[in-house]
Every structure is written in C-alpha cells, then in structure tokens.
Amino acid sequence: MGTMTTRPTKSHGRLSQSASLQPRELMTDRPRLKGAWTAKVVTLFPETFPGVLGASLTGKALKDGLWALEPIGLRTFGLGKHRQVDDTPAGGGAGLVMKPDVMGRALDMACSGTPADPTKWPRVYLSPRGKPFDQRDAERFAKADGMTLVCGRFEGLDQRVIDHYALEEISIGDYVLTGGELAAQVLLDATVRLIPGVLGNAESTQEESFQNDLLEHPQYTKPAEWRGHAIPPVLLSGDHGAVAKWRREQAEELTKLRRPDLWTKTQTED
Ligand SMILES: C[S@@+](CC[C@H](N)C(=O)[O-])C[C@H]1O[C@@H](n2cnc3c(N)ncnc32)[C@H](O)[C@@H]1O
Questions:
Q1: Does the Cβ of 153 fall within 6 Å of ligand 1?
Q2: Which atom of ligand 1 is nearest to the CA of 155?
Q3: Which pLDDT tens digits describe the chain residue by residue (270 residues)?
Q4: For every residue of the chain, which 3-state class applies, written as one string?
Q5: Ligand 1 in contact with 128 (CB < 6 A)?
Q6: How far is the centre of ligand 1, averaged over its atoms, from the C-alpha of 69 (Å)?
Q7: Domains in the chain and their CATH numbers?
C-alpha cells in the first residue's frame, strides 16, 4: 500500500492552496479552508468532474473552499505508448479489466498523505456488487477528513486491487452504469451537503427523508390555491403543534405505503 501519513488536525478558517494532479479550472489554484474535507477521485475521465457538483450549493461550497476535489486521471499512469490501462480477463470472456499495476500506482498517489484509518479516510470502489449506498453511509463519509473514490470502467477492477487496498465496495442501485463517475458524483453530492456550512442552513437536513428512517412529508408553497388544488388547511393554521403532528402522520403513512422495509426498521428500532 502507498505511504500514508496522518493529516494535520483540522484548523477552521485558514486558507491554503493545493495543486491537483489533473489541473481543472474549477478545482485547482483555488483557496480551500485548511483541513477542508477532500475527495480524491481516481477516474479515466477526470474532465467529468466536478460535473453536477460544480452547480448550486455544492459548487459554491467548492469555490469557497469548504470542501475540495482532486480528480486523478488514470490514463497518466497507463503503460506504454498508448498508456494502456486495461487488459483481457484472465480465464477468458468478453470485455476488458482494469489493470492492477496501473490502478495500484494511481492509488499509491491518491493514498499518500491521507490517514490509513478507514474511519478517518474511507477508500471506496463504486461497484454494482457493493453495499447499497444510504444516508447513514453519507453521514459516515461526511464525518471523515475526506475520502478516496475509485471509478471503474469496462468489466471493472482487478480483484487484487480491491483486496490489497481493502476498498469498500459501494453501489448506488441495482442497475449497471457504464462507469463509476456518475455513481461517485451521487455519493459525493449526498455526502458533501452534510458538511457544516455547505447548505448554509443547518436545519434543512434535519427533517429530510431518511432522517429517522422516515420518508419526508409532502411540501407546499404559495399560492394557497393552484388550479383548484388547495394547500392542506392545517399548514396555514399557524398552529405549530398541529403542523408538526400532520407532518409526522404524513411521513409515517408515506413510509408505510412506499417503503415497508424502512417502516419495519423504524418499528424494530423504537
Ligand atoms: C459496466 S460496469 C462493470 C459491471 C461489472 N462487470 C458487473 O457486472 O458487476 C463499469 C463500472 O461502472 C461502475 N458502476 C456500474 N454500475 C454501478 C452501480 N450500480 N453503482 C456503483 N458503480 C457502478 C463501477 O465502477 C464499474 O466498475
């Protein structure tokens, strides 16, 4: 495994500069808060980052240095004139497999200077075979100092790399994507918005779906009547207790109806 050192303890409010391995306009030469949560992403397509993460609140937080993104282009580590990164599967069969020697060198670089402790610095391989990603994972990742993500392509990664670096396999759902980049952005979006200051309004994550294992109640806004549909009167009553009770009941009904698995979980945990 690559040399890993303990990161300096967090000191909020101080700015530092860090050069990315793949200079990208949105990610390099920008101030970042010293010790800011950092995502290192090993990918064959570094140009697909920050992608959607560059928009709206996650994009503003990235610009302001509240979190940092370092895409690491796998092709740089490829072999020979053609910078080969893949080869035919051992045992035969269709497709190509990402080479362990190439990915190993990229991961050594990605791991250098990061804590070896996976609770402080999770190392994740996006994979349809992985544990289904959920809000608890996002909370766990957001509490770390940062994380390294490996985006697969082709038939995926040589198993020895997964074993050697003890990569945690995470899936974003029961379907097969062409590559791990979209999955990495989904995981990062859900994680980064939990980092203090990113949403601007700390309260807005408190009552969302999956907090307390319940789906969120329906939301309404003005006008009070739209095309003959009225906002439920209780929401306009000014009675905060009644509003809270209505929302809780709605959340429970929706969860029972749409996600009986989650509902069973809340019942057994209570
Ligand atoms: C075409 S897929 C490989 C699928 C693999 N041969 C299999 O059957 O499990 C290429 C890459 O896309 C990513 N990927 C595909 N589906 C994913 C999912 N549901 N969640 C996370 N990553 C996914 C992984 O990084 C994977 O290595």
A1: yes
A2: 6
A3: 443 333 443 444 455 434 444 445 445 555 667 799 999 999 999 999 999 999 999 999 999 999 999 999 999 999 999 999 999 999 999 999 999 999 999 999 999 999 999 999 999 999 999 999 999 999 999 999 999 999 999 999 999 999 999 999 999 999 999 999 999 999 999 999 999 999 986 557 777 888 788 999 999 999 999 999 999 999 999 999 999 999 999 999 999 999 999 999 989 875
A4: CCCCCCCCCCCCCCEECCCCCCCCCCCCCCCEECCCEEEEEEECCHHHCCHHHHCHHHHHHHHCCCEEEEEEEHHHHCECCCCECEECCCCCCCCCEECHHHHHHHHHHHHCCCCCCCCCCCEEEEEEEEEECCHHHHHHHHHCCEEEEECCCCCCECHHHHHHCCCEEEECCCCCCCCCHHHHHHHHHHHHCCCCCCCCCHHHHCCCCCHHHCCCCCCCCCCCEECCEECCHHHHCCCHHHHHHHHHHHHHHHHHHHCHHHHHHHHHHC
A5: yes
A6: 22
A7: 2-192 (3.40.1280.10), 209-269 (1.10.1270.20)
Cα of 18 from ligand 1 centre, angstroms = 31
CB atoms under 10 Å from CB of 212, counted, come to: 15
Ligand 1 pocket, residue 131 CB under 6 Å: no
